[in-house]
Amino acid sequence: xxxxxxxxxxxxxxxxxxxxxxxxxxxxxxxxxxxxxxxxxxxxxxxxxxxxxxxxxxxxxxxxxxxxxxxxxxxxxxxxxxxxxxxxxxxxxxxxxxxxxxxxxxxxxxxxxxxxxxxxxxxxxxxxxxxxxxxxxxxxxxxxxxxxxxxxxxxxxxxxxxxxxxxxxxxxxxxxxxxxxxxxxxxxxxxxxxxxxxxxxxxxxxxxxxxxxxxxxxxxxxxxxxxxxxxxxxxxxxxxxxxxxxxxxxxxxxxxxxxxxxxxxxxxxxxxxxxxxxxxxxxxxxxxxxxxxxxxxxxxxxxxxxxxxxxxxxxxxxxxxxxxxxxxxxxxxxxxxxxxxxxxxxxxxxxxxxxxxxxxxxxxxxxxxxxxxxxxxxxxxxxxxxxxxxxxxxxxxxxxxxxxxxxxxxxxxxxxxxxxxxxxxxxxxxxxxxxxxxxxxxxxxxxxxxxx
Amino acid sequence: xxxxxxxxxxxxxxxxxxxxxxxxxxxxxxxxxxxxxxxxxxxxxxxxxxxxxxxxxxxxxxxxxxxxxxxxxxxxxxxxxxxxxxxxx
Lengths: 452, 89
Prior knowledge:
Chain A is an alpha/beta fold and about 450 residues long. Helices cover about 45% and strands about 15% of the residues of chain A. Chain A folds into two domains: about 25-190, Anaerobic Ribonucleotide-triphosphate Reductase Large Chain, CATH 3.20.70; about 215-440, Anaerobic Ribonucleotide-triphosphate Reductase Large Chain. In chain A, the strands form two sheets. In chain A, strands 1, 2, 3, 4, 5, 6, 7, 8, 9, 10 and 13 form an eleven-stranded mixed β-sheet that branches. The radius of gyration of chain A is 21 Å and the shape is globular. With about 90 residues, chain B is an alpha+beta fold. Chain B has a single domain, classed as ACT domain (Alpha-Beta Plaits, 2-Layer Sandwich), CATH 3.30.70. Chain B is built from three helices and four strands. In chain B, a hairpin with a 2-residue loop joins strand 2 and strand 3. Chain B is globular and about 30 Å long. The two termini of chain B are about 20 Å apart. The interface between A and B is medium-sized, with 22 and 25 residues.
């Protein structure tokens, strides 16, 4: 039997501190859906997704009710579409995105990820066609997410792809200009992309994954913040220990839900992603955890150190709580999705440059950042290159999800709605990198010793 | 399946009686009761067995919620596994 204190602690975490399971993501292999006829291929894709994920939402809701813990999102990730579509005799991959959108809506999930290409070292013909289709695909679908991996520690950085992704982001922005460039909020550029990430917009079902898999992303920044309120002024040993214990409890809930979901859906249990994923809700912010550690505002000197401690302690606590850990696993810092980050930008405390520094010590990268609409494709590509370099050298995943909002300038605000939140337009360094980006080619893979 | 019931609210006569008779009506067997007054609030945690229950957990949750509103307390019913996961290794 549990004592009253334990039961009330769990329920307080859920009711007052926004403890939730952020997502149950079902990974589905589409490798057997390729066909030279586009119509046949997209029909196979629709058929397979709607069949495999038929019960996903219902089981998610069942678990939510039984355990009394909210499960915010049910999602699907699929094999990178460039690989599936490649066999089809067509130049236009937009119909594949339409099939994903239709299938995802039919089963009632929140998002589907995998309109993706992995071009770390170079393009296949299918990769080229997929990347070309991204702006139109994101403009004409609602819940399809796209990602492109442009580099890795083992391969170096494909600078041709970096340059092209700068142009693709601009095109996606212009194509959805009437909706504050929402297309760009569904597009991630990765270095060291992972095959089992349950979080959007970067989820895809990697080629080494099984036929059907359940990956779960936990959350709970509010719970960590609340736990730290009890150790005000204590030294960092105590802070780290408190975060670890809290992460352990949060992750155990994720593990329970993941195992049970996999069992009921007749799928493999893949991984738990140990992430602190904020939402725009008050009290569900990673920035507020950093401030609880003693910073006046997120972005102040000390922020990178605070985030490093937080990120590491979350992993240490979470690793003990789950049998399989993977995905992105770390604290997320998506600006528009975190009330504390938004406030820090509004106060002038948090800059793009500080965010870049923060991404060196946490998961994942420059995420949900709105920038002026007149930022050039070359400057966006250069920002991607910087972020990819951090990932490549430090052997970690980094990503860029940046949104140039047409017609908006620094100080304006942009509203994406729902979990995507809202964000003030951030200042971008206006000095140019055009000649750097024009070079193209590949940045060679880095040496793995002499690591200073 | 064993469930944990949490009942929190302003103390008054008959809360335990009303909740336990409701459980009896639905053939839910009470295994243990832990009750105290916390910061002036009636707080009770019950462990119950639903093996022979005549309703599903979701139906029971709805019945309990309605009863809770009627007597002015909050009643939650959850599968015990979430507490096992979080508090026992």
